[in-house]
Design a protein that fits this description.
heterotrimer, A alpha/beta (121), B alpha/beta (119), C alpha/beta (98), B: 119 residues, alpha/beta, Hypothetical Protein Ychn, Chain: A, five-stranded parallel β-sheet, 5 strands, 34% helix, 23% strand, globular, C: 98 residues
């Protein structure tokens, strides 16, 4: 693969209610394995993907949240969370299972403009 | 210009596949190349040759197959998403192939624009 | 950058998230988002306000299919699929707000 491009993954959906969060994570890992420049954005209900303490036994579904902690091993270190979305859900950085960069909406918008490829799930 | 397209929803349930098809057709009509269409999430269901819509409805699956044949569009179905949903080589419609997510990354790196259609 | 929205502003916050986040540029409303570009809907004032930052386009076949072709808001530019393709070409990147 020749060119390195800036890929951004925008996650706006909560986990478990639909499959998007899980399958998005699978693309992120593959994209990182292809040595692309990867950023992840969590906004709106997407911030719930990062909530600590997910217990999925009772719904007989795999808890995939530990995989967010493994992102570091794939050199995926640009994790951005929308401040407004987090506040609207009564969450703060301490509630999240990985360390993230918290951005305002306008900072987020500026970052989106810098990308080559934006995938939204 | 060289386009990649991602389809994230199944046929008939959601407009995404129709929108993606009409976009692809318009791009080709203007002389652009649609290099690859990648089917992900429930979008993998667009590739089932067992699909049989009523006669007065559009055949979404055949429409993609025809586009692939006439304009050499590479129709790639994500293997992990497909196996989860019972899509395998034996029920794959003409022009589609099953492959890995790397093909989606490639659709981002090897094209000028990547457009996603989903929910 | 081209921002593509496909959900009705009356049932989803997707359009609002896009408008409050994106730096501006071109905004294309497709599928159920076309209702945002119609006269008299509750989100009309928000779209109007966004026109300071965005050039707003609506996918006419989607608007017509929904019986709303006659109700298109002022200031919105109708495009067909060819126009949709042109927007993806004239912008260096695009984002579908799913």
């Amino acid at each position: 693969m020749s060119a390195i491009k800036k890929f951004m993954f925008v996650n706006r959906k909560a986990p478990y209610g639909t499959v998007y969060a899980l399958e998005s994570l699978e693309v992120v890992l593959i994209t990182a394995a292809f040595d692309q420049d990867v950023s992840l954005v969590f906004m709106d209900d997407g911030v719930y993907q990062l909530k600590k303490g997910q217990q999925t036994k009772g719904i007989e579904t795999k808890n995939f949240s530990p995989a967010y902690r493994a992102l570091e091993d794939y050199d995926v270190e640009k994790l951005y969370v929308d401040s407004e979305s987090m506040q609207a859900r009564g969450l703060s950085e301490e509630d999240l299972l990985v360390s993230v960069t918290v951005l305002s909406r306008s900072q987020m918008g500026a970052l989106m403009d810098e990308q080559d490829v934006v995938l939204s799930f | 210009m060289k386009f990649g397209i991602v389809v994230n929803e199944g046929p008939y349930q959601h407009q995404a596949s129709d929108s993606a098809y009409l976009f692809a057709k318009a791009a080709i009509a203007q002389g652009h190349e649609v290099w690859r269409v990648f089917f992900y999430h429930d979008g993998v269901n667009n590739s089932s040759k067992l699909t049989e819509p009523p006669q007065d409805d559009r055949n979404i699956v055949n429409r993609w197959s025809r586009l692939a044949e006439e304009h050499k569009v590479d129709l790639v179905v994500c293997v992990a998403a497909a196996l989860r949903r019972g899509i395998r080589d034996e029920n794959l419609a003409q022009g589609f192939r099953i492959s890995g997510l790397g093909q989606l990354v490639e659709a981002g790196t090897q094209t000028d624009r990547l457009i996603t259609f989903g929910d | 950058m081209l921002h593509i929205v496909n959900k009705s502003p009356l049932t989803s916050n997707t359009l609002d998230s896009c408008l409050s986040t994106a730096a501006g540029g071109d905004l294309l409303l497709i599928e159920d988002a076309v209702y945002a570009a119609t006269r008299g809907n509750a989100a009309e004032s928000r779209l109007k306000a966004a026109m300071e930052k965005f050039r707003v386009y609506v996918l006419m076949p989607d608007l017509a299919a929904r019986g709303m072709g006659e109700r298109m808001s002022d200031g919105v530019t109708p495009v067909d699929y060819a126009g949709f393709v042109d927007l993806t070409v004239s912008n260096k990147s695009c984002q579908s707000w799913l």
